Amino acid sequence: MKSPMVTIGNKPVGDGFSVYVIAEIGINHNGSIAVAKKLIDAALLAGCDAVKFQKRTPELCTPADQWNIERDTPWGVRMTYIDYRRRIEFGKPQYDEIAQYCAHRGISWFSSCWDEESIDFMEQYDLPAYKVPSASLTDRALLKKTASTGKPVILSTGMSTMTEISRGVDILKDAKLLIAHSTSTYPCPLEELNLRMIGTLKNRFPEFPIGYSGHEVGLATTWAAIALGATFIERHITIDRAMPGSDHAASIEVSGLLRLVGNIRDIEKAVGDGRKRVYESERPAMKKLRRVYLEDTQKV
After folding, report:
1. What is the pTM of this model?
2. What's the confidence (pLDDT) of residue 183?
């Protein structure tokens, strides 16, 4: 079977291509466009291919029994959960500014949309892709709505069984689909990352590119995901992991992001194609050290 490939923007994603790196800003902007721009700059500096945000309609995505529960917020005040969800969401003025800023800086951006109204909202920006968050994998209406855009769709698979994943993939099978292995714990313990699922998904869904969306602390496990065959990577990023907010503790700071992407580029060069060959750089050592040649081995 031909290796699967999906193009996001002008970049092919799949086996044999450069690993596509997504810096997940999500809601780590804490409602600040200035923080969002700093994170966009960090992703660009590190060499990421795209930044990603999250878009929700609070009244649709917040369970009614949670609306009036008070909670601490990143702004140092307590407020009801529904008011927090409303305040953390960017609207059209902010996304207009993000679209203009990313175009000016030359980096792609897109979004995870948690409800159908958010898809309609984001369609005004002609994004290169969408992501279905793990929490929405079983939302048939949202999956169909996302597929109807005709854009590439990244399906995240945290908090899901293989049966649920298969059903979601079946709904999206005619879309330009990419599948991300994920575990939806923030931050995720190492023993629950289960990185061998990357190979399992490759075997189960060979017609789609398989990647990894990580929520762990540290970088080594994401590098391991590359070695295990992930064709795209997503990690949350933040200015400071100690910032208040739900996702900062499972995110990478700017210095870590620079290391992550730099070493990903080294690893993707190093893994090779799996075909054994004698490299020209080996020939001086072969001439110096090898005493016996097989008949079908070309002597130097």
Report:
1. 0.93
2. 97
